Amino acid sequence: MTTCSLLVPCHNAAAYLPRLWATVQAQSVPFDEIICYDDGSTDNTAEVAQQLGATVIRGDVCRGAAFARNQLAQAATCDWIHFHDADDTLHPEYLAQTKAKIQPEIDVIVCDADWIDEATQQLLIPRRYTQQELDKNALAATLTNPIGVISGLYRKELFLSIDGFNESFQCWEDSDLHIRLAAAGAKFSVVEAVLSYSLRHDRGLSRNQQICSNCRLQLLQIYATQFESLRSLIALEAERVAIAALLQRDLQMAQRAVQFCISIGQRPPTTHNPILKALKVFLPALQALYLQQWMRNPKLFLDDSRT
Question: H/E/C letters for each residue in 257-270?
Answer without folding.
Answer: HHHHHHHCCCCCCC
